């Protein structure tokens, strides 16, 4: 967003002499208040200036940050999710590690026989097991995975911001994107329909920056 | 940035009937053109609408994206870098893995005797070695690390956007933040002064969203 030179001048003026009234700004610029109205409305609107009634204008400078915030809050997980890599509870730890390398991912999701999300395994979980004295060629992933209800996940209609908050708060690298489903036996389950990772977030930012 | 209900109405109108002139918008809203001037100026200014002389207004919707891009390009790595975890070339693979768990990081940087950046090891590198038949208690990290000049790194005065691009292009989880230095023997080296990871980027976004 490009500001006009007059708008930039107004910002500098407010930064130096805040609070400052529109009359004072108009006088300094030798303009009428009416001529300034649109510029002041724009600067207040986009949040660079803060207007307090009967006091005047303050410099806030928050606008760009808050637009990033609202952009992230309006972007649905659905629009940016990537393909999930899924193994079964019976898959051996060794085979799951091979899958992780072949698919070039950092986290593997696990589903049970009803095809519901039942676990998640990170590179660190695998590494911990691999340096121990375990027969990883025979051990099923069900023995080492993080299980429900300890799995952090998101629904497709949550925002990228919600996903980022969960990733940071739960200290994980990625989240399964899920949808609720009713199984044959009337139990509720979560179907894995995608993945949101720190990589997704970084890619979104790179894509935005390129545009 | 919150748009007024009239501004939102104008946006919807332009989306449906673009290009549309200010006369047509004024007529639909039963307002004078003068009453619309500030709203149209704001919407054009922040880039949601595009105005073409003698044609009318178009919907662009680009503004927020471009402010995110410029924010990321103006934020220096210096301001957001975190502490690097560093081991020596002689450190054993086992000890480096223990450090990775103790420090709760995903990547370990390696420095040589001159205290210059000489290597980097990811969780995947460790995992690959751990599942092979290696004596990781005796093997030094120098045997498995990615070496210069194959290490992606950033300088402190590069932007967070530059860092994100390198992370995606080199398919890594984190970058050492370095500064050039001249060693005693007049060789140039890179001193490790920080770390930028996908976690850093995700944290920055969460922080922005909270504000």
TrEMBL record, chains A, B:
<dbReference type="InterPro" id="IPR036390">
    <property type="entry name" value="WH_DNA-bd_sf"/>
</dbReference>
<dbReference type="InterPro" id="IPR013196">
    <property type="entry name" value="HTH_11"/>
</dbReference>
<dbReference type="InterPro" id="IPR051257">
    <property type="entry name" value="Diverse_CBS-Domain"/>
</dbReference>
<feature type="domain" description="CBS">
    <location>
        <begin position="145"/>
        <end position="211"/>
    </location>
</feature>
<dbReference type="Pfam" id="PF00571">
    <property type="entry name" value="CBS"/>
</dbReference>
<dbReference type="Pfam" id="PF08279">
    <property type="entry name" value="HTH_11"/>
</dbReference>
<protein>
    <submittedName>
        <fullName>Helix-turn-helix transcriptional regulator</fullName>
    </submittedName>
</protein>
<dbReference type="InterPro" id="IPR000644">
    <property type="entry name" value="CBS_dom"/>
</dbReference>
<dbReference type="InterPro" id="IPR036388">
    <property type="entry name" value="WH-like_DNA-bd_sf"/>
</dbReference>
<dbReference type="InterPro" id="IPR016842">
    <property type="entry name" value="UCP026546_HTH-CBS"/>
</dbReference>
<keyword id="KW-0129">CBS domain</keyword>
<dbReference type="InterPro" id="IPR046342">
    <property type="entry name" value="CBS_dom_sf"/>
</dbReference>
<feature type="domain" description="CBS">
    <location>
        <begin position="80"/>
        <end position="136"/>
    </location>
</feature>
